[in-house]
Amino acid sequence: MTSMSGKRATTAESAESAECAQCVVCAECAEKGDGRKASRPVPRGFGLTANGYGSLSRQFRSTPRGAHLARRTVVRRLAEWGFAPVSDASCSVASVVAELAANAVCHGRLRGRNFHLRVDYEGPASRFRIEVSDAVLGRVPEQPTLPEDDQETGRGLFLVEALATRWGWESRNPVGKTVWAEVAAALPGATAALPGATAWPSSA
Predict the structure, then answer these.
(1) pLDDT at residue 108, as a whole number
(2) What is the 3-state secondary structure (H, E, C) of the chain?
């Protein structure tokens, strides 16, 4: 016979699980632990389709931590699609996501609103499509200009322009904007050169 205390504990655990399942950044909950050993989520096997397509769509809090988590989430998902974290494709996409997410946090933040990230891989076209949406339309990205030598910021869009075959922005319905970029990348295992692809600089 189940005790009342055991039943209350089970109910509390169920409520906690339900709340975490609806959390915007559930990976953040898993990292907190609150003094307990946090269990890692079970991989759900998000592989590419038979035709070579994959899609990731998530919201993140408009904070530096949210931008960092967006980059980590993309690297994990690309690994599930067959793009190793050290591959040119993963490094390029992760860098573009990091810059666009950082811009959304710095220039598109609106109290109580998250930013939205979408990454699509189109195998037949050998490219990634990256979209970062925020709730502010007034501040839109401009053509990057070279900042002063002593300026520590302002070079993010130069990196996006270097890694992407093309990029731009568009207004978002009903409010805000979406900044997008496309990065060339062959299917995992393919060795053919891609026109317009930008190689990731070697660390050597």
Answers:
(1) 67
(2) CCCHHHHHHHHHHHHHHHHHHCCCCHHHHHHHCCCCCCCCCCCCCCCCCCCCEEEEEEEECCCHHHHHHHHHHHHHHHHHCCCCCCCHHHHHHHHHHHHHHHHHHHHCCCCCCCEEEEEEEEHHHCEEEEEEEECCCCCCCCCCCCCCCCCCCCCHHHHHHHHCCEEEEEECCCCCEEEEEEEECCCCCCCCCCCCCCCCCCCC
